[in-house]
Amino acid sequence: MPSPGRLASVLLRRRVLVRTRFDLLRAEVRRRIRPKTAYTLHYGPGHVFLSHADYAIDWESFKWVVADDAYPTDYDSAVVLDIGAHKGYYGAHALARGARTVISFEPEKANLELLEAAAAAYRSRSADWQIRRSAVGAERGEAVLRVMEGSWAHSLHPPDTWAQYEVGTQPVPIEAMIDILEETAPLRNESSRLIVKVNTEGEECGIVLGTPPEAWGGVSELFVEMHEWAPCTAAELAAHLEPVGFRELPTEMAAVLRLRREEAPRSDPRTAPT
């Protein structure tokens, strides 16, 4: 659970909307007095949820995306692919920052339930948020998702040391990254950037390295969260995409690899007025 100091640090962040701060405080009080299955956080034109069962994890995940600004860029009119969507905090953040379309991929059933509820709330306000119950990899197929106690640790290939935390399995479809990039081509135009976020618990190497560099040519910016057990390095991913113009940008988050194509727009919310 967030300590009083950590909670206060988020409530004082100006980049967190006032209504969202109020909802975070209300959720913290409510879970102690009269717990609910999930707590609503209004954010942008809709709302997302923190589950009671995974409250600490969901709170940290929301903080990572919204308060810590782990994926900073210009989302205005962008098409966004959210690979490994969890409960939708990144998708909601992109839409709140002006994205035109978000397509989220999440294979795990419990996460998916609250993700779909969040997307429905945004769609009721005319936002274009599409949900796909699938994992993503280099090739299309099926796999077994290893479900862990913590909602952010479900993985197709978890480290052996995680066996003690496994609570079940789920069969899941896998979509090929190359097919997804080809499918989104008609959604893009000269004024809309394609932004891809990958956070897939160690599958990032297969997704990026298993997809030919030229297939990434329509992507303006790519965020990849690197995991210690992944069988590749951030440098290898960057080298793989260098032939189509991607260059690494500095980031405050050590675990996040940020790549942008040289010809992509340069605006960035860190320097833009708020």
Provide a compact summary of the structure.
With 274 residues, this protein is of the alpha/beta class. It is built from eight helices and twelve strands. Strands 5-4-3-9-10-12-11 form a seven-stranded mixed sheet, with helices on both faces.
Q: Can you tell me about this structure?
A:
There is one protein chain. By secondary structure, this protein is α/β, with parallel strands linked by helices. The chain has a domain at 71-261: Rossmann fold. The chain has helices spanning 4-11, 18-33, 55-67, 89-96, 109-123, 177-184, 204-209, 234-241, and strands at 38-43, 46-51, 79-83, 101-105, 128-132, 135-137, 141-148, 166-176, 194-198, 221-225, 246-249, 256-261. The strands form 3 sheets. It has a 7-stranded mixed beta sheet with strand order 5-4-3-9-10-12-11, sandwiched between helices. Strands 6-8-7 form a 3-stranded mixed beta sheet. Strand 1 (38-43) and strand 2 (46-51) form a beta hairpin. The protein starts with a helix and ends in a 13-residue tail after the last strand.
